[in-house]
Amino acid sequence: MAAGEHGHGGEVATVDPSDLPTGSVLTSSGRVSAAEVYAEPSRTDHPFSPVQLSRLDEALTFASRETGLRFSVYLGDLGPDSRARAGELLSALEGSGEAVLVAVSPEQRVVEVLTGEEARIRLPDRGAKLAVMSMVASFKESDLLGGLLSGLRMLADQAGGRRRSS
Question: What is the C-alpha separation between 54 and 149, in angstroms, rounded?
């Protein structure tokens, strides 16, 4: 059995090759060389595929163009006061007065739909509640994308077409 030396800052440590972890070797210079298994990064931290993101983007664009309102979706943890956090997110949006925010926290099982002052005139609470009920029904069937798409469609329908300037 051979033993090697490994030096660091003038100190020399003796290394027994049998003490090395699997995939490690002691080189002739006394340096320990270790191999690691490469694994592709997990994609489980992304809820949507690129195709699904494209569909969501199309739905947001369509809803915004048809109504003249600014539709946005937030997906993530909303914290202990979900309504307040959604309000912060809404106020941070450009043109927040004309904004409609759909905030979904799947882990908390929370859906918030908030509207800016101008958007609220065109999108009554009753319409937003119906859209939330539709989204929740899809979410219960593990269809996050379908729920968001149908919710955006319903919200846009409730808000009506873009107002034309006279």
Answer: 11
Query: Bridge partners of 73?
Result: 102
- 50-158: CATH architecture: Roll (3.10)
Closest CA to 114 of 134, 84, 138, 143: 84
Look up the pTM and report it. Answer: 0.70
Backbone dihedral angles phi then psi of residue 8, each to the nearest 5 degrees: -145, 115
**Which residues, at least 6 apart from 124, have a Cβ–Cβ distance to it below 8 Å?**
158
Angle, in degrees to the nearest 10, between helices 50-67 and 144-159: 10
- Residues 124, 120, 56, 146: what is their CA dihedral angle, to the nearest 10 degrees? -20
Strands (E), 48-163: 70-75, 99-105, 110-115
Per-residue pLDDT of the chain (166 residues; tens, 9 = 90+): 344 444 445 555 576 777 877 877 777 777 777 776 666 655 566 788 999 999 999 999 999 999 999 999 999 999 999 999 999 999 999 898 999 999 999 989 999 999 999 999 999 889 899 999 999 999 999 999 999 999 999 999 999 887 655 4
